[in-house]
Amino acid sequence: MDAALHHHKVVSMDSEFPGFLRKTPRRSDELSAFADMKFNVDNMKIIQLGITLSDENGIIAGTWEFNFKFLIETEVFYDPKSIEFLKESGIDFEELRINGIDQLFFSNMFTHVLSRHRDLKWLTFHGLYDLAYMVKLDTKKPLPVSMLDFTEIIATVFGCCVLDVKYMARFYDDLHRGELGLEKLAKILGVKRVGGSHQAGSDSLLTARVFARMKTMYGIEESRFVGFLYGVTTRICEPTDALARGSENKHITAIVRAEAIIKHDDRLVAYVPKKSRGHRQRLDIKPHSHSSLSLHVKSSGSMNENKKRVSGKQCFRSGNSNEDEHKKEIAEETKA
Length: 336
Known about the structure:
The chain has 11 helices and 6 strands. By secondary structure, it is α/β, with parallel strands linked by helices. Helix 8 (182-189) packs across helix 9 (200-218). Residues 240-321 have low confidence and may be disordered.
């Protein structure tokens, strides 16, 4: 992944986690929604993280799926129905118990990799919880007490260029103005899934392909959408200012954290979920003192079937032309 990030700087991510201890009603205000999210994320652990890397022309370098150690017997907080749902989706909790990645080890290694690549574009789909679990992994602390502080941390960890594909879909009538889930949106756009649904690797790959198709079909100007998350009125950042602030802070934290990173020459142990074994994969397997899992699904070719190329430099132009429109729509939804 480290090598691929030099030329494939679009990072699509998805996560799987143990459900919701507090479920937020659809029309809840932002303060209540954040309080529920903080309670859920602070008390539970991420189960699976999917990362897909691509370039600005839609060429995919690969998809990585990280499966974390999770012991149902010892975990105090989780939603039993969500665990059963994830089992049905193909996640093997016995393998997670035996060979799951230690979260602290992963956090140190991942932070080290990110410190070497500060000009990335991050893609999510309805990604508030995905970002929250990533922030928790990065900071190793509970989430901050306010939404404003949380969005500032996101800008620090990820930089200015964060895009939520579900939020982007809100501005297009034929995409049902963002009311659809990832699977249904992909079908409308004619994008086929690789792998199983509700697997973080497959979902991150589908997010990357949906984003690429939307760019080619609608000629999206990315600067309009940078920093907005679906269902959140607070913009994460003004692109230009946050980019500078994020890079500076990341440089400082990288120096501190680099001292704690253990150098390893061995490759990570790899584990393939049962429902993924029929797909083309490259697995690097070697015993390691730290239990870890990594699925690397190789893929090649352009996601943009009509070959239209869109420059990613738009991402770093400042601009908040749709901020007032966004806040107005959120307010109208809350009143409804």
